[in-house]
Specification:
The chain has 71 residues and is an alpha+beta fold. The chain has helices spanning 27-40, 42-54; strands spanning 11-15, 21-26, 58-62. Helix content is 38%, strand content 23%. Strands 2-1-3 form a 3-stranded antiparallel sheet. The relative contact order is 0.24.
């Protein structure tokens, strides 16, 4: 029996308007942190999201390029 190939690890990056990365996390911990923030402090999370929009920050999800093409 063989092990399935490991899934590519995606990263979530929050960038300033100038393009400088402010925060980089893996996708799963980033999603867990966002969900926890929504549960614990939904209003603060909403204000933080609006502030990021007002400052024109960008959120990118990047997947590493695999060496072998998918089968």
């Amino acid at each position: 029996m063989t092990d399935p190939a490991a899934a590519p690890r995606r990263t979530v990056t929050l960038r300033s308007p100038s393009g400088k990365p402010l925060l980089t996390l893996r996708a799963v911990p980033a999603a867990l942190a966002a969900a926890a923030a929504l549960v614990v402090a939904p209003r603060l999370t909403a204000v933080a999201a609006l502030a990021a929009l007002a400052r024109k920050m960008t959120l990118t999800i990047e997947a590493p390029e695999s060496a072998a093409p998918p089968a």
